[in-house]
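Predicting holo structure, tryptophan bound.
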Amino acid sequence: MSTPALSASATTRFLTGITTTGTPHLGNYVGAIRPAVAASRQSGIESFYFLADYHALIKCDEPARIQRSTLEIAATWLAAGLDTDRVFFYRQSDIPEIPELTWLLTCVTGKGVLNRAHAYKASVDKNTAAGNDPDADVTAGLFMYPVLMAADILMFKSHKIPVGRDQIQHIEMARDMASSFNHLYGEHFVLPEAAIEESVATLPGLDGRKMSKSYDNTIPLFAPREQMRKLIMGILTDSRAPGEPKDPEGSALFQLYQAFASADETAALRQAYADGIAWGDAKQMLFERIDREVAPMREKYEAMVSNPAQVETILLAGAAKARELSRPFMGELRHAVGLRNLGAVAQAAAAKAAKTALPTFKQYRESDGKFYFKLVAPGGAVLLQSPAFDSPREPGQLIARLKRQDSAAIAEVTPWWLAADAPAAVIALLAEAE
Ligand code: TRP
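Done. Tokens:
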């Protein structure tokens, strides 16, 4: 990638953050990681993937867990084939411009808007239902969550944000913050949109409900092989005996298989269900199919997790690349809101004042056929009026000499000043007059 800043207008930018609180499971892989890695290889797309470790602090106060999760998630994305030459892959806390932008956005966000954010409202509703203070155990971090997320998104002028449905409100809030800021300070931000991938399956977990940490029903993507087999053998099925036909509809095992298999392989399992395959055999098929895709990645993953310094180097290189965009953009934003170098402001004001205070020379021909020139003040008052010249060359040359502050020329025009006190200050400005 040569000049990311220049290609911004031609390409669509995708950006998504992964909160660093857990260990990636098969649901994360199928629903987010695999499609993102595939999308990042398409042309005409610029992808930003980052580890949202500031967001992790909102829900987790265990430092070791944050650190471990950051390593595991980074290693997972790299093992899944993310090409860091093509994408921006970084850790949120390595980009100091993100918290800086968070503050600028905080100042254009209505408190009432944040009161209505789903995650905050859910905590308040829970407290109210339990008869507690509405804000009991609610940190300002949870309250500010949407603003930090908007800073993630707006910092890199992202167009599309691939997220789950639960995040749509956050993207809408980021849009609103971007428009408020643009309205106040000029067009600086791109208005982002949520990209909801309808075709990507949500995987069922061990108990048939959506695979999710909160249900404790997950299969870790890089569980050691034997542990993965045991977990798969524990997937909930119905009590149909071997030989009895089985229904793929509503079968968690079937859905999991489908998420990894080709159309032909899926059709074969459907047939096996109809033929009464034993659940144990079906589970073995599922295990082998998943292992076929996961095993090569698991090797890379384990190599990286056992060499954290290498992952650290990759993340720092990613941050350096991202900061080539964020640093100058933050400079632009600081200037837009008035956080400016005072020396530069004074110079700019002086230059501007001087420019508007400059008189102008006007050359013209009258109906008598003669040539004249005058010097006009910025307000329109005539400061100096020449007599008639027979050719246009004479006033032209005289003006040129006046601009050079030629003393003979200044003496020559002295009688033509309309104000008696032919101003030395105006003479000093002649060099710059137009
Ligand atoms: N809030 C997102 C989640 O919980 C994670 C996240 C943080 C994010 N910043 C983001 C997602 C910016 C998309 C864009 O899933």
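The longest strand covers residues 12-19.
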